[in-house]
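Human: I wish I could look at a protein chain and see how it folds. This is the protein in question:
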Amino acid sequence: MTLFTPAVPAPPTDARDGDFALAARYRPVLMLDGNEPSPPLALGYSVMRAATKSPSSKFAIAPPPGGAVIEYAIWHDWDIQHLYDLEHVWVHLDAAGAVTRVEGSMHGMRVSIDDGSGLPEMEGTRPVLYVEPGKHALWGVLRSMSFIAGHHIAQMCGPEAGREGVHLGNSFAEGGAYAATARDHRLARLAMKRAAFTPSFLFERPATEPALMPWSALAAFIPLRMKALIAALPEKVPHLEAVFLDCGDTLIDESTEIRLPGSDVVVEGDEIPHAMDAVRALHRLGHRLALVADGPRGTFENMLMPRGIWDLMDTHAISGDVGASKPSPEMFEAAMDGLGLGHEARSRIVMVGNNLERDIRGANEFGLISLFVAWSKRRTHVPAATIEVPQYRIDSLDRLVAEIEAIELSLTEAADG
């Protein structure tokens, strides 16, 4: 699966300066794995003829006497583990213009790239480099890559894909050029997890080489590109629009509830183990949360406000306010209205509850994704009809976050409507 790229903004392919011809003459030939999901998009060059700080990396540059170093900053929209990737190649030239050394970036390090002769394979004046699948570190010898790091690379491209979300540890983000919310990070991780792949370690030259431009042009392009990529995440990445949560025997243990004398309002009750931590974790992941519960408002304010959970909910659909109880569609409609969601979002909302007759039946009839919490034994776990059969089930609230993540990862373009 190729990771998505927004249509605009595109690199300024006509950007060039007086060093363009020199940079074009020595630009590296980048060989890509046949399954690579995010090929390089642009190369930003800088030519340095005296010792100086690299304009696009953390390293110091020291050209040969009378010579130069051409630095190529290689832009990929995606690393398989984070959104944003800037790699580097340094080509050292002597006073006569001969290549004396080639270096490349490798997981934050700067390493010499050669095939044992002091230089990598060369195509005329151009070094031939092998781009590590998914992670894009630069190698000079393919067999060394597959032998030394093949298993680790496969792990990063497979089970460890999407580990980091949107990359913020760079000068652009640290300078405020772009930012990311918790939801942005979650959707970026989803995109990369879906793009997880098995490297073929069969490399080929791409049909189209990345655009070549001065570093100043690429540096102006990257923030625009990142903003476009982040803005496109909700449209391009199938995801959950919301998580609806019941309360009694879903978050609070009903067997421990104490009511005001002569009232249905609960004033005390124990939380179910792991329930509040799960809600907090869902909030940290950027999920929109709605309380969808039967009872008087005072009950849920008493149970959730002191625990700091009430304000983590984006809206509260409470039967005492709505005038109807689950499985009535009015309850779910109230929650969707509170979130500003249209009916097309129903297939991307999870209803989490403990009551087959109310929570699960209501969710299934309304077109939501139903998740049964089977922690309490106070009510039946046996559906009375097919419409009460939950789509998903957990027995403990410490499984809630992982189950929501699995449900979200399983969404497809078709399910996303």
